[in-house]
Design a protein that fits this description.
The structure is a homodimer.
Chain A: E1 11-16, H1 20-31, H2 33-40, E2 44-50, E3 66-68, H3 73-76, E4 82-85, H4 92-103, E5 108-110, H5 113-130, E6 134-135, H6 146-153, E7 159-165, H7 168-180, H8 184-194, H9 202-205, H10 208-222, E8 232-233, H11 241-250, E9 252-263, E10 266-277, E11 289-296, E12 300-307, H12 311-327, E13 353-363, H13 368-378, E14 383-388, E15 400-407, E16 410-411, H14 412-423, E17 428-437
Parallel strand pairs in A: 1-2, 1-4, 2-3, 4-5, 5-6, 8-10, 10-17
Antiparallel strand pairs in A: 7-9, 7-11, 9-10, 11-12, 13-15, 13-16, 13-17, 14-15
């Protein structure tokens, strides 16, 4: 018996990029074809693809599909209703393809966080002018439907906070560091050997990937144009094995968080390692898992946790967007038309407030603590607690010992002064390493 | 300056029921009117309301709204575009209002889990015939947008499991029992005094509310007609303070879970207390919080956690549905048209498999353990571990002692035989209490 939907006009799909996500999308569309057609109300049909190397073995049969050596061909292919951009990168062919497809009045689905974080505002305007969808569920947190949750599920509420663990590679490295006591460099090397980290890991470990995703979440949560340039970005290279150990001793875990918060002054957006109390739900999100925490005035606190990357999870997000398009749903890319987005200003990092962890190595001499605490006093920063372990037995009188300081809430600017002054003290041998403390 | 959307035709809303959720919905629509209009693309306007007692003080000004003593008036009110049903109950005025509104071609938004669990299949057909939306995001897990996540966000994947902590009252009671060591009855009484539990708590503590929600989740997750009657339901009245203490000792927490699982034989749907390993994410969801765990073949495991009840969170779900309607989105109530839902059969409880916790009081005599373990052997159930604490000092030779047994995986039917046989043994003074063990 033919499927009851087989007589309906299919949604014809052109896919640019046949890497991990592109291959996963083809496989998902094939494996669940009947289920997807039932939910979309019509069949989905991949008609054309584009990738760099036609000959590369992918374990996929693409012989029935029209092949475009140039991805731009998909924007004009008469057998393509919707373009799926899985090339990546904020410029070059990915950007050109998306711009051209929208200008031709074709809806676009993309998993490209860099493109959306950097050019998402102008692309959304182009989609609006064309009256078609620009969909990017797969750009943030892979299989977790967080874009839909923010743009539609929480559309009635005014959010005060959004963020979380948005990069599985960093979370895996930090989890491994805690569980094994090894250094960042050693764990990174192993992660690269296992394929959990790229050969050039900087997009992940320097926080850029997290910042792309945070910029997108913040724009949706606060209804303002996406603004990647305002995100303060620090990665995890500076987190030492000693920091992980001290954090555990103090009742915290170290996580790379993306945090966006609406305050009286505007919107803070920042990415940096954080000490999070062990009891906070986000502290227990370990390994490659991602988690997004949203807090709204009416809805309270929500946490969404799941796999943030990988072929399967990301493909489910790509195809969910395709199903929305097949159903004829059309929601503005940023949850409201471009002209009606808010003009909330960005708060610079120096104006943020919080409490802080500082670790430094000092010479083990009388008066050292007095010198350091005098710096805090002079900068107007109040000390909450201090941790100092005795030096190893048999160590010389002038050898160094680690000290950890935890401050009460203060301004970032004051802390930056503290860090600079402490680093300049003669008695300080190394550091300080500064890590911000977040409630989670 | 007038709001740019103020010239557009508003979506005119009629609300039936002005209790906690109805009042919260009115307040949210008022507090966030501009934000909601921006996201909906047009203003939202409540034009008419209905409730039992017009004179009751609600802290709401409804003097400008058309008042209907009979909620059915909303279905015919010419100034109402969409009916919001917040009366509750699977029969009576709620059912009549929803049926009538749909038959008049008016979209309906409801928070009524009982109505959707029991009559959701026929109501969805009626909505389809009329070509209008039947939306019920607020019926499950309050502020967590789980209906949208399942129906749209995960639409491309084949789910294997859905469920979680769906009733905040039960989770609050179990959390309090664990934290204070008190009995179910004592904690329930306090919860009633604090307003966390109803005067007649049976819908909550007997698992019925969880079963309504689970039936809805299972229908969406597995794409089959909602089937409340097939849900196996047990509540938490039988959970003793001793069970909570033993569970902690064994590394578990006790949670009331709704669980739906697709197996080779069909779909299991069951609500009962569970021992969940302390390390499972769902074990740490405490107090009034809800959490939904979904597992799909491509997406892996997802968990969504947040406030499952209360005026604010539930109102955000009601208004999110209204925004979808204002935007013109129209997704079938169960994610696919009624005619294309699957025919997966329901698996009876007796055919489910799992491992089990048994607690019983036995006379402290030689040979008791042999008698009990013989029952397990005869029923083909394999013992995994046993916990027996010595009796209190000074206790007589014939006084009772508690024993806890944990089994390997077995069939529910075999366990029911074990329970019956053990309960009939002369040496058994009380019990056994049987609690199922879930991975979480």
């Amino acid at each position: 018996m033919p499927h009851p939907l087989s007589g309906l006009a299919p949604l014809r799909i052109g896919i640019a990029g046949l890497g991990t996500v592109g291959g996963g999308t083809l496989r998902l569309l094939q494996a669940n074809a009947e289920l997807i057609a039932t939910r979309a109300g019509r069949p989905m049909l991949v008609t054309a693809v584009s990738a760099r190397d036609r000959q590369r073995a992918r374990g996929l049969d693409v012989s029935d599909l029209r092949w475009h050596d140039d991805p731009m061909g998909l924007a004009d292919d008469p057998d393509v209703d919707v373009v799926v951009e899985l090339i990546g990168g904020s410029e070059g062919p990915a950007r050109r393809l998306v711009e051209t497809a929208l200008s031709r009045g074709r809806p676009v689905v993309t998993a490209n966080k860099a493109l959306i974080a950097v050019h998402g505002a102008s692309l959304a305007s182009a989609a609006e002018r064309a009256g078609v969808a620009l969909a990017f569920e797969a750009a943030v947190a892979g299989g977790i439907p967080v874009i839909k949750a923010l743009r539609e599920g929480l559309a009635a509420d005014r959010l005060v906070r959004i963020g979380g663990i948005l990069n599985g590679t960093c979370n895996y490295i930090l989890t491994q560091m805690r569980e094994t006591g090894r250094s960042f460099a050693a764990v990174l090397e192993e992660a690269q050997a296992l394929g959990y980290a790229e050969a050039d890991p900087s997009t992940d470990v320097d926080g850029i990937d997290t910042a792309h995703k945070l910029a997108i979440l913040a724009a949706l949560a606060f209804g303002r144009p996406v603004d990647f340039d305002s995100v303060h970005v620090e990665g995890i290279r500076g987190v030492g094995a000693a920091d992980i150990a001290f954090a555990t001793e103090l009742g915290y875990r170290i996580k790379l968080l993306g945090i966006a918060r609406r305050t009286g002054e505007g919107v803070e957006t920042r990415v940096h390692p954080c000490l999070v109390p062990h009891s906070a739900p986000i502290a227990r999100v370990e390994g490659v898992f991602n988690a997004v925490v949203a807090e709204g005035e009416f809805v309270g606190r929500l946490m969404l946790e799941g796999r943030g990357a990988g072929a399967g999870p990301t493909a489910t997000a790509v195809v969910a967007d395709l199903i929305d398009i097949a159903r004829g749903s059309l929601v503005p890319a940023w949850g409201a038309s471009s002209g009606s987005l808010s003009t909330l200003t960005s708060v610079p990092m120096s104006a943020c407030r919080g409490s802080y962890y500082l670790r430094l190595e000092v010479r083990d001499r009388p008066g050292v603590i007095a010198e350091i605490t005098a710096v805090l006093r002079d900068c107007g920063v109040s000390l909450k607690s201090m941790l100092q372990h005795g030096q190893a037995a048999g160590a010389g009188p002038d050898e160094s010992v680690p000290i950890v300081l935890v401050t009460h809430e203060t301004r970032e600017q004051a802390m930056q002064e503290v860090v600079q002054c402490i680093a300049g003290l003669d008695v300080v041998v190394a550091g300080p390493t500064m890590i911000r403390i977040e409630a989670g």
